[in-house]
Amino acid sequence: MSTIENGAKPVAGVEHGPPPRHHPLRLINRAPSRRLAVFLGALPFVALVVAYTAASHVRRLDNPSDRLLPSLESIGAAFFRLATERDVRTGDITLWVDTFDSLTRLGLGLGVALAFALVLGIAIGFLPHIRSALAPFIAAVSLIPPITILPILFIALGLGETSKIALITLGTAPVMIRSMAQAVIDIPREQMVKVQTLGASTWQIVTRVVLPQMMPKLIAALRLALVPGWIFLISAEAIASTSGLGYRIFLVRRYLAMDVILSYVIWITILAYLLDRLLLWWSRSAFWWSHLEGDSL
Amino acid sequence: MSALDVRNLGMAYGGTPILERVNLSVAPGDFCTIVGASGCGKSTFLRLLLSQERPTRGQILLDGENLPPEPTPDRGIVFQRYSVFPHLSVEDNLILCAEFAAAPLTGRFFGAKRRAARATVDSLLEQIGLAHARKRCPAQLSGGMQQRLAIAQALMMKPKVLLLDEPFGALDPGIRADMHELLLKLWDEMKMTVFMVTHDIGEAFKLGTRVLVFDKIRHDPHDPSAYGATITYDLPLERKRHVQPPETINELIATSEEIPAHA
Prior knowledge:
Chain A is 71% helix and 0% strand. By secondary structure, chain A is mostly helical. The relative contact order of chain A is 0.10. Classes of the chains: A mainly alpha, B alpha/beta. The interface between A and B is medium-sized, with 24 and 35 residues.
């Protein structure tokens, strides 16, 4: 290198430059192959199952009737029993009734929150007067820990469905409203000016320019709201309910029925995962234009 | 074809003057290109022409009347970026203004009406070379294609004045030359008044019938932001196709025989 920098001629007899030194690629520039990616993705799941099986086995060597870490077979058997056999007292199949009731509450709670997020989020993000009136209020309300509202809801609305649905709505709506309002504000100013020069009224700007661009953002906000949504659902069901996934888990806790609890936890996880994927699929198929750039999880 | 008069225009942000004592009279059909150093108020001037912002003093008259206080269809705009709608296909970007005019409540055509509206933009799509891409959405277009769409969209309303804020600043030179041809052709056909902000002196001379240079004429060395900019040179280009464009603004000013607009 230094000879070249000094302007000296290469040494006679050397016709080629040195071969390029091999540097290992930076880690950020290496991506796993498709098969390796699947393998790596499965690894933590397999590790968890293996660790659990081993721990469960060790405990049951000491005490064959151990209830704390039931075997995978007994978890599967509990799940099969709950999903197929009718309860002798009620005549219902427990798992499906619990699932239906819980998903109804979650759907209604998040649905109402979604409606609020859409209407208030766009109004706050788009109309300066409404922003001045509501933005500080929503910012304050979103900081109230929702679970502290639960006793108030139980007192005011009774122990029925309304109070549980209200908890899910109150717990998820403020954050969704704020992220929607921010998303409206983030629409480039140029677009807002341009659409005015095309002769659009405020209503037309909302319906043709703002709302369609908000839809994928709304779905993204909903996917994030599913997590606290489930927490509030299970909490409300655990405290006051006669059905539902959370009710069942906290009911059988008294009998240390870990096989039922674990099968319900796995079931809830599967439901939550499917809901999340469903929303992502909806966003990608209906609003594909917003998924053209960048990766998404 | 519309005349535009700017009288004693001044603009300040929070006490910091950006523009001061801008006077200008533009004849119908003029193609004014605006050049000047960064931060000298070129884009601010364009925003004032658009009513995106309101001047702190002075007035702007379009055909003898004060500009409306908000953006309206009589002034079209093309920005450097973000001026087409990312959720609409190319053809739907173009029929949008017709939908606004025809359907106050839904702002949307349905069924046969929509097909008919899309058919009306056939020749325009051909003209801007986007006929093959009519179903694509903007993220699937190159930068040049997006700007062709943005110009066509702005012209759909047949504006009296077309405002261009560095529309080709992000394009490579070859594409830029094509865009110049397209713009000159459309300007020739539609005979509108054009204001175009650009950083490229060559572009300003190639396209404009009149080059406006924005700069500060008063300087306070202890407080550089004490004074705003104004139009320091106003060069009508009668023989515009034959003028060799200068390389820099300084050269332009040095070689100019014109009298400064504010002597």
